[in-house]
Specification:
The structure is a single chain. The protein has 3 domains: 95 residues, 2-Layer Sandwich (Phosphorylase Kinase, domain 1), CATH 3.30.200; 157 residues, Transferase(Phosphotransferase) domain 1 (Transferase(Phosphotransferase), domain 1, Orthogonal Bundle), CATH 1.10.510; 95 residues, no CATH class. By secondary structure, it is an alpha+beta fold. It has 15 helices and 13 strands. The strands form 4 sheets. A 6-stranded antiparallel β-sheet has the order 2-3-4-5-7-6, with helices on one face. A hairpin with a 3-residue loop joins strand 2 and strand 3. Pfam families: Pkinase. Belongs to the protein kinase superfamily. Keywords: ATP-binding, Kinase, Nucleotide-binding, Serine/threonine-protein kinase, Transferase.
């Protein structure tokens, strides 16, 4: 009998990024401060446990650059030296062709190590925020996703794992351009794939692959998992797996993709922190959106060895030139559903579910408890129907993307992704 595991909530080691944030006051840096001997601070761009990122003017050539100022704490200094080692490896790559931030050099400011990078426009987080978190249409999302897959492909070619891929570490070069160009930044947690240490906690909560959270040996595939989550967030404007800690995220993963494979759970250093054994409960033609859902599922494969690679992403039919035009609403007739454009005028999605799902009466009762709007009820019913035709993860991504394409506001989209599918499909 295979041993099944069930997630439980109890006291367990907190595995979080707990470094306190730095501030200009901590580092005694203000606008006008001169770093090194010729970099004048003009503005503050970001901060973290490592220190600050500042916009500086180089007084020697009058160019504006981004300077990452690391605190003088011994552990942070060591991390900065490791980052320099990674950046030296990346000098073999063309930063523009490979969609990776250009690193100019480093210098010392007293005991602090300062890294000099090209100045970019804004992060993808800010880019989506400027659109009121409504997500991007497929025609805008496609080139961004292709560029990021290209970046991972080239990182893999030199044996580097980024280990912290998220919208905040992806920068837009010029938000006014179309299509936008992006570059991957922040190699503070990056490491050679040959030097990863099982059990090391890398990445950011909500974007980490299961093997990282469970303490399983990992490799470049953790970046593909993160890219899958970034892709969903670009399409919907909200994270697919929100959570305050790894336990919350693991719950979302299990609810949308089912139980993690036994061989992963059995090999995890931290499995006992989140799971207990349970021997009782065992358990068409494609358009742009269906291809997108298929690509996301391949990026979010629970088993890292089965996860799609960057080179496979670059060849995926989602990027076929014929799909560059605006993606129409999906015709669900071939799968027993309805054309989403007609949902508002036809509010009956009845019939008994042939796979043990809820009946139409049950659907309407559940939906009625959440929202009395007919169109919302239709999307609720569609979520259940999709989950029985495909799987919960496909239903979640598909319904949120369709809701946005049909004019739902970000609040409704958040409602769908956090509440709707979680409550009705599982």
């Amino acid at each position: 009998i295979l041993v099944q595991f069930t997630a439980y909530s109890t006291s367990y080691p907190a595995i979080t990024n707990s470094n306190p944030s730095a501030s200009e006051d901590d580092l005694q840096i203000t606008e006008g401060t001169i770093l090194g001997d010729h970099h004048v601070v003009e503005a503050f761009l970001g901060e973290g446990g490592f220190g600050l990122v500042t916009r500086c003017r180089d007084t020697k050539n009058n160019k504006t650059v981004a300077i990452k100022v690391n605190k003088s704490d011994p552990e942070i200094l060591l991390q900065a030296k490791l980052e320099i080692f990674i950046l030296e490896q990346l000098r073999r790559l063309d930063p523009d062709r490979c969609n990776i931030v250009e690193w100019n050099d480093y210098f010392l400011d007293g005991q602090r190590i300062c890294l000099n990078f090209e100045l970019l426009d804004q992060s993808l987080w800010d880019y989506i925020g400027d659109r009121n978190n409504q997500g991007l249409p497929m025609r805008e999302l496609r080139p961004i996703l292709h560029q990021l897959a290209n970046a991972l492909f080239h990182l893999g070619s030199v044996g580097i794992v980024h280990a912290d891929l998220k919208p905040g570490n992806i920068m837009v070069l010029n938000h006014s351009e179309s299509p936008v160009k992006v570059k991957l930044i922040d190699f503070g947690l990056a490491c050679p794939a040959s030097a990863v240490i099982p059990g090391d906690r890398v990445g950011t909560i909500g974007y980490c692959a299961p093997e990282v959270m469970l303490g399983i040996p990992y490799h470049e595939a953790i970046d593909m998992w993160s890219l899958g989550l970034v892709a969903v967030e670009l399409a919907t404007g909200v994270p697919l797996y929100p959570g305050e800690d790894d336990y919350d995220v693991l719950k979302f993963i299990i609810e949308t993709q089912g139980q993690l494979p036994d061989h992963l759970l059995e090999s995890g250093l931290y499995t006992d922190c989140y799971f207990i054994e349970d021997n009782y409960n065992k358990q068409r033609p494609e358009n742009g959106q269906t291809l997108f859902v298929r690509l996301i599922k391949e990026m979010l494969a629970l088993d890292a060895n089965l996860r799609i690679t960057p080179s496979e992403v670059l060849k995926h039919p989602f990027f076929h030139p014929g799909l560059s035009r605006r993606t129409p609403c999906t015709d669900m007739n071939s799968t027993g559903g309805q054309n989403l454009c007609s949902l508002s005028s036809n509010h009956r999605l009845g019939g008994q579910n042939s796979r043990g799902g809820k009946s139409s009466q049950q659907m309407s009762l559940v939906a009625g408890r959440i929202d009395s709007s007919p169109i919302v009820n239709d999307f609720l019913a569609l979520a259940i129907r999709l989950a029985t035709k495909y799987d919960a993860l496909s239903a979640l991504v598909f319904v949120v993307v369709e809701a946005l394409s049909n004019g739902f506001c970000p609040c409704c989209s958040r409602f769908f992704s956090f509440k709707l599918v979680q409550r009705l499909v599982f």
